[in-house]
Amino acid sequence: MKFCFLEFEEMKNRMLMTVAGSLLVAGAAPGEDIVVDGVLDAAYGEAISLQQVQTQFGNADLGEPGFCNGSEIDGVHAVIDGDTLYVLFTGNLESNYNKIDIFIDSIAGAGQNPILGNNVDVDFGALNRMGRFEDQETGEIQPGLTFDAGFAADFWMTFTGGAGKPDKKGGTSYDTYMSYADLLTDGGDTAGSGFAGPGSFGLEGSLFTDNFIAAAIDNSNTAGVSGGDQPEPDGGAGVSTGIEFSIPLAVLGHSSGDDIRICAFINGSGHDFVSNQIMGPLLSGDNLGEPRFVNFNDLDGDQFVTITGDGGGDDECFGDLNGDLTVNGADFGGLLAAWGVCGGCAADLNEDGEVGGADVGLMLAVWGPCDPGGGDEGCGDCNEADGKGEGGCSETVCESIVCDIDPLCCSAAWDQFCAQLADSNCDCATP
Predict the structure, then answer these.
(1) I need a labelling partner for 211 at 20 to 30 A (CA). Which of 4, 182, 227, 381 fits?
(2) Residue 354: its pLDDT value, please?
(3) CB atoms closer than 10 angstroms to residue 93
(4) Phi and psi (nearest 5°) for 132?
């Protein structure tokens, strides 16, 4: 078999279109009993969390699957089925381009808490709009959106919808969009990211990304919580439509058996104003406002939900068949060489006893280098916070590494966060 590496990118793109197209035609996500269309399927079972407070982002009452006049998260249903995570947030998303921001903790010992200010630029700087920054009025470094202890985000996705361009007859379509990004522990603009849209509502309006995330919305709910800021215990019960997505566990870097945690909330159109509609829920209260000043540790309860880690997942470098810590053309060639019935072989990524198109999809979803881990450059006093509030540290190589990750460490102050970056990226055991 001859394989031309120069033609690989073209072949990869064709495979992506073929797999995404087959999902759309079949009308179902990879799970046997779950269809990603914004409607609750029996395979989800009971909600793992319900909304406990009224919404301050408008109480939806139109009852249409597309256009909607309010936003609320009434509950969350989630399940791991084989090698895929399925999640349905019941409720509504107002068609004024409000956002639902979804953070996923899927890799033990990695991820961001709080959100950094040096993440990849996606959806017009959405992540950095919520992240660590220097307050120009005070000169102080603000930590950014901070999750509960025990939660560190490895992956982010967002979904939004609103009026599209008027057509020739004067009608206006309901358009949806989604974006996603990896959240590397130390941030950086090399993280994987992507975008899909426009779509619309229901199954026919589903969105598909190039790494096989599927998402859909049904906005027809008029039940659930009412409008206001008062407690409404289990007020989200009984809702069966909302925002739904599926995502391969390989995309999340998930290891089999590990739990997955999700924090989600309704946000303003610029990712700039956090509502009181959060999962896990608040117990009462107003909208939280500016995301960079939100600290979920200050609020009662956990503002995340947990999905038990049954199902498949990633190993140290999922899809890396030859062990060189990179998923590339050599691994793809190995997969092609094993094509067909191949029970128990390494190229059978979904472990169905056969190497086929599904395995190609999983390999393409994790294409590229694996996380190389920290460095070995030595760090002097760089792993200590500077109490004087000055930027930089004594060891120039380590200083350069850290300030490439977060420029505030040199331009503003070498704080405890910068010291932690030094610990994880420089060989601080070396004097």
Answers:
(1) 4
(2) 84
(3) 28
(4) -55, 135
| CA atoms of 316 and 343, how far apart (whole Å) | 21
pTM of the model: 0.74
Give the pair of three-digit tokens for residue 58: 């408008």
- Residue 404, Cβ neighbours under 10 Å: how many? 15
Which amino acid, 253? G
Average pLDDT over residues 210-239: 96
Question: Residues near 289 by Cβ (< 8 Å), separated by ≥ 6?
Answer: 273, 274
Q: What's the pLDDT tens digit per position in 153-192?
A: 999 999 999 999 887 777 889 999 999 999 999 999 889 9
- Could you report the per-residue pLDDT of 52-89, keeping only the tens digit for each? 999 999 999 999 999 999 999 999 999 999 889 999 99
What is the spatial distance between Cα 282 and Cα 275, in angstroms, rounded to a whole number? 10
- The whole-number pLDDT of residue 227 equals 96
Residue ranges per structural domain of the chain: 11-307, 317-369, 374-431
Alpha-carbon gap, residue 417 to 129, rounded angstroms: 19
Cα Dmax for the chain = 73
Which CATH code of 3.40.50.720, 3.40.50.10490, 3.40.50.300, 1.10.1330.10 fits the domain covering 317-369? 1.10.1330.10
Q: Specify the length of the chain in residues.
A: 431
DSSP 257: T
Place of tokens 């004087």: 388
How far, in Å, CA of 18 to CA of 360, rounded?
A: 11
- Among 92-96, 260-264, 293-297, 366-370, whose mean pLDDT is lowest? 366-370
